[in-house]
Amino acid sequence: MSIKRTRSCLTVSAGMLATLATCALADGPYDTGAPTFYAVPLPPPFTWTGLYFGGNIGGARASASLNDDFNNVSFDRDHNGFIGGVQVGYNYQVRNLVFGVEWDFDWTSIDTSGNVALPGIPGALHASADTEWVTTLAGRVGLALDRTLVYVKAGGGWVRNEARITQLATGTSISASDTTGGWLVGGGFEYAFAPNWTAKFEYDFLGLSDKTLPGFPGTRSFELERDIQQIKVGINFKLN
Predict the structure, then answer these.
(1) For a FRET experiment, which of 144, 151, 200, 228 has its CA 20 to 30 Å from that of 70?
(2) Are 93 and 52 in contact (CB under 8 A)?
């Protein structure tokens, strides 16, 4: 075989390879007949950082102790009621820790009344107490497990109280109506069931300062001690 004929064969072979390559490229470099998979972007991780507001509802238990300082006699009474209101707060998340502050305001149906008898006072006494509303302001610290937040809180609270004691034999009454403050501790957990919506369950203990009422003739004064326990559920909307 001559050199000229060999070169002709090589030229024909190169042309055939070029034609085959052109046809393959026309079908597409990834067209192998197998299904093609595309990466779906994941949603961003949930963050608790942001301003939120919402509402709550629940129950409360108030424990009251009425002390007669002159006769050194004490009467205790517990009473329950409903609570409901609103809350607003702000959270800031650092890795798995969440720091925040929250204010809430709740109306209540907590009230109680009854008769008591004290040594040295003729006849029975009728005592009543009514709690109109409760408001608290507290800091929160929590541990975030993705969409679940477990937290504790501490701060202060204020309660609007009305108290009255009536001496039934004479009709003489003493009363007090004011806003009483105290300290607050509590805790709970919260779950984000949607990108901007969370639901929570919470327990709070509010220890109120004592209230002194003027006494009837024959007594020095009455000391009223109260604390309120609250259990409530709530829902919040978080702003981005």
Answers:
(1) 228
(2) no
86-125 tens-digit pLDDT: 999 999 999 999 999 999 999 999 877 777 666 666 667 7
Tokens representing 148 are 């679940």
Token reading at 91: 């959270």
Cα separations in angstroms, 12 against 26, 87, 198: 21, 85, 74
| Cα distances (angstroms) measured from residue 130 to each of 68, 110, 177, 190, 223 | 20, 6, 9, 31, 16
d(CA 184, CA 176): 23
Tokens 């039934």, residue located = 168
The answer to whether the CB of 160 falls within 8 A of the CB of 132 is yes
Six-digit token pair at 47?
């963050």
* Whether CATH 2.60.120.200 fits 50-238: no
CA 144 to centroid of chain Cα atoms: 14
Of the candidates 186, 208, 215, 220, the one whose C-alpha atom is nearest the C-alpha of residue 102 is: 186
Tokens 């409530």, residue located = 232
Q: Are 139 and 90 in contact (CB under 8 A)?
A: no
Nearest-angstrom CA–CA distance, 62 and 52:
29
Cα 188 from Cα 128, distance rounded (Å): 32
- At 2-37, the pLDDT tens digits run 545 444 444 444 454 445 445 444 444 455 566 666
Query: Which of these, 86, 89, 101, lies nearest to 55 by C-alpha position?
Result: 86
The amino acid at residue 26 is: A
Instruction: Note the pTM of the prediction, 2 decimals.
Output: 0.72
